Amino acid sequence: MSPEYKVTMDERPFEVDVKMLDEGGLLVIKVGDQSFTMKPTLDEGGIWLVNDTAMDYSVKILKKTGKAVTLEINGEERIVEWERLRKQEVVKSGANDEAGGPKVSGGVYPPMPGKITELRVKVGDSVNKGETICILEAMKMFNELKSGSSGTVKEVNVEVGSMVTTNDLLVIIE
């Protein structure tokens, strides 16, 4: 299977796959031909603590701009650019056509920029077409973002409090 992401750091591109092994957050991350098993945890200060068998990392997300994410990794600031390579099927019909750009089949996208105030699903949940996935606050109004199809939640890319834009992929339902 082809890699899921293309990640560029320090002008070096990497092909990356990420798979969740269990509900406890254990991940297998494949970078090129190497695989790493790790379990990131978020502390009260908003810092991700990541350990693999070789080293411990302290990672803080400083800023997200488009495909670029500015991270502080063990005290050192790094800019990482990422791009999803898989699942980029153009949606032929649905509420998100007017947002422009390629869309993930089964993806839930916000119709406008705003803040996620409620998230009603998690990975593995079964949802029905038209079911509310999350609540988006935009321009002092609360908008229910609904599933465009029935299926199982495969991926959740936001949490309560996340600021999102129209091209952000919030949830994937397969």
Structure description:
This protein has 174 residues and is mainly beta. The chain folds into 2 domains: 5-84, no CATH class; 97-173, RNA polymerase II/Efflux pump adaptor protein, barrel-sandwich hybrid domain (OB fold (Dihydrolipoamide Acetyltransferase, E2P)), CATH 2.40.50. The chain has no helices and 17 strands. The relative contact order is 0.14.
How does the SSE layout of this entry go?
Blueprint: E1 5-9, E2 12-20, E3 27-31, E4 34-38, E5 41-42, E6 48-51, E7 56-65, E8 68-73, E9 76-84, E10 107-108, E11 114-119, E12 126-127, E13 132-138, E14 141-146, E15 151-156, E16 163-164, E17 171-173
Antiparallel strand pairs: 1-2, 1-9, 2-3, 3-4, 5-6, 6-7, 7-8, 8-9, 10-17, 11-13, 11-16, 12-15, 13-14, 15-17
* Radius of gyration over all CA atoms, rounded: 17 Å
Distance between the termini: 18 Å
Major beta sheet summary: 9 strands, antiparallel
Structural class by sheet pairing and helices: mainly beta
Low-confidence residue ranges = 87-100
Strand order of the largest sheet: 4-3-2-1-9-8-7-6-5
In percent, how much strand structure appears in the residues? over 45%
Percent range of helical residues: under 10%
What is the structure about, briefly put?
This protein has no helices and 17 strands. It has 174 residues and is mostly beta strands. The model is unreliable at 87-100 (pLDDT under 50).
